[in-house]
Structures are given as structure tokens and as C-alpha cells.
Design a protein that fits this description.
single chain; mainly alpha; 6 helices
């Protein structure tokens, strides 16, 4: 696995932040990755082990997930850049003139927005859970305070 992590992943993922992949390209990349991982785990297709099982056994995240993580990191880096930097200018560039006939090519920006929205959805879920837990803790603390206060008040009345 050291060979996979030190040679295969960096070689494959070099510059992947800027790739725009179609669905068929994503399937082919995942198939090639799983072919290598099956070989490394000493499984064949006849063993009927699922991709998730093999990844879990080898403790590896998918290469496309890693690529999406690189893309999100690059997008966040773009957001922090000053306005005069060339990568940021090229990100905001809109070409002039007519487009070619046919379906427009998918832009990097469109794929980045999809993965960013997915990431933001998880972020908001974590905030929601945090707020719910904070509210529960506040309610518990309030109830304990009331119990303690009324218990102390009852002891004071009994003592007097």
C-alpha cells in the first residue's frame, strides 16, 4: 500500500484540481483504480467482493473522492487570492464571441459549484446538529439549576 500511496496517487492526481470530467471518464477512472486495488488485495472478479469492501479492507478512499477534495481545496484557495492574481482572473474570464455548434462543454466552474454545494450541505448539517446539542445542554443545565434552586429553597424553609 505504500507504493500505491507514494507513487500511484500523486502521479495520477497531479493537476487534477483543474480537470473537467464527464460521467464516462469518471467511470473509466474508477474501473482502472478498482482493477489495481483488486490486484493489490489479491482478489479477482470471481471472488465477488464489492468496491466498498475492498476500499474498506485496504483503508483507502476513492481516487475520485480525493480528486474532488483537491478541487474543493483549490476553489477555497482561489477565493482567498487577491484580485490581481492570474488564476483568479482566468477563473472569472468570460470569452467573447460565438460558441461552437452543439452542446456546450461543461466548465470547471460548474463542476466546482456542484461539489461545493455538496460540501456546504454537510457543513450546514453539522451546524444544525451543533445548535441542537447546544440547546439540549442549555435545557438540561436550566432544569438542573431549577431543581438545585428549589431544593435549596425548600431546605431554607425547613431550617427556618
Amino acid at each position: 500500500m505504500k507504493i500505491y500511496n507514494t507513487l500511484v496517487l500523486p502521479k495520477f492526481l497531479y493537476g487534477s484540481e483543474n480537470w473537467t470530467l464527464t460521467a464516462s471518464q469518471r467511470r473509466r477512472i474508477e474501473a482502472a483504480e478498482m482493477k489495481l486495488l483488486r490486484f493489490l488485495a489479491c482478489y479477482t472478479l470471481y471472488d465477488h467482493k464489492t468496491n466498498d469492501y475492498i476500499r474498506c479492507e485496504l483503508q483507502i478512499t476513492g481516487i475520485l473522492d480525493k480528486k474532488d477534495e483537491y478541487r474543493r481545496n483549490w476553489f477555497q484557495h482561489l477565493q482567498r487570492m487577491p484580485q490581481n492574481r492570474i488564476p483568479l482572473k482566468s477563473y472569472h474570464y468570460r470569452p467573447q464571441g460565438r460558441r461552437t455548434i452543439g452542446r456546450p462543454k461543461k466548465l470547471w466552474r460548474e463542476q466546482g459549484v456542484q461539489s461545493l454545494m455538496f460540501m456546504m450541505m454537510y457543513f450546514y448539517c453539522y451546524i444544525y446538529v451543533f445548535l441542537l446539542l447546544s440547546l439540549c445542554i442549555f435545557i438540561i443545565m436550566y432544569v438542573l439549576f431549577c431543581i438545585f434552586f428549589f431544593h435549596c429553597a425548600a431546605l431554607c424553609i425547613v431550617c427556618v
